[in-house]
Amino acid sequence: MIVLRSADEIAMIGKAGAILAATLEKLGKYAKPGVQTKELDRIARDEILKRNGYPAFKGYRGFPGNICVSLNETVVHGIPSERKLKAGDIVSIDVGVRFRDYYADAAVTLGVGEVSEDAARLIEVTRNALYIGIEKAQPGRHLSDVSHEIQKFIEANSFSVVRALVGHGIGTAIHEEPEVPNFGKPGLGPLLEPGMVLAIEPMVNAGTFEVETLDDGWSIVTKDRRLSAHFEHTIAITQKGALVLTK
């Protein structure tokens, strides 16, 4: 069942989103060569707690980190560790925040130091795909209209869309209905209505769309081990269009 949220509930999700946005902004300043991914995890935890939120991923289905830190060929769910960032890496940072009983979810992919032209283009296309999806998230459209526009843009730029992972509804749980794919035909699925809250998150690979899970049980990597990028915002559907709650 898709829950339609009241204006007060959307405001609460927005408060979680503000904590999240501030956390991602701070992490962007520390994602430098030589920094361990577990240090990013600590910084995120401290920032979220300082702002009276709670790291939503900590312990979720047994996940050991406060955030997901995914390097290079890791698409999502990278576990923070002693691994150090190095110049030329790209790092996807996915953060979930709970504020009181409400959740927000967002992600960015950053270049570490100077990255290759191909890596920079992958990041740019993935970011733009997210905003194309957000722009299409208008009341009265089908959910798959959003999915289709994201896929069309990504494939027009010669990248591939991960099929095994999708976005999701969000509100009083980190994952709610509906699923929000980044691919598919237009004109399908539920109609978007004011009060829907969605986490739209294109995951884009430089090579094949196929992925696999590493032995740690969490890290999902590209099957061909080429680069992957990931961007995400939590949005609310309003009468006027999509309202980004994680800016």
Protein described:
This protein has 247 residues and is of the alpha+beta class. The protein has a single domain (7-244), classed as Creatine Amidinohydrolase. Helix content is 29%, strand content 26%. It has helices at 7-30, 37-50, 117-136, 143-156, and strands at 54-55, 68-71, 74-76, 90-99, 102-111, 160-161, 167-169, 176-180, 197-200, 203-205, 211-213, 220-222, 228-230, 233-238, 241-244. A 5-stranded antiparallel beta sheet has the order 8-7-9-14-15, with helices on both faces. Strands 1, 2, 4 and 5 form a 4-stranded antiparallel beta sheet that branches. A 3-stranded antiparallel beta sheet has the order 3-12-11, with no helix packed on it. Strand 7 and strand 8 (176-180) form a beta hairpin. Helix 3 packs antiparallel against helix 4 (143-156). The longest helix is centred in the first third of the chain and has 24 residues, at 7-30. The mean pLDDT is 98.
Q: Can you summarize this structure?
A:
The protein has 4 helices and 15 strands. With 247 residues, it is of the alpha+beta class. A hairpin with a 6-residue loop joins β11 (211-213) and β12 (220-222).
Name of the CATH first level: Alpha Beta
Overall residue-averaged pLDDT value: 98
Just name the CATH architecture.
Alpha-Beta Complex
CATH-level-4 superfamily name: Creatinase/methionine aminopeptidase superfamily
Task: Give structural attributes.
about 250 residues, Creatine Amidinohydrolase, 5-stranded antiparallel sheet, 4-stranded antiparallel sheet, 15 strands
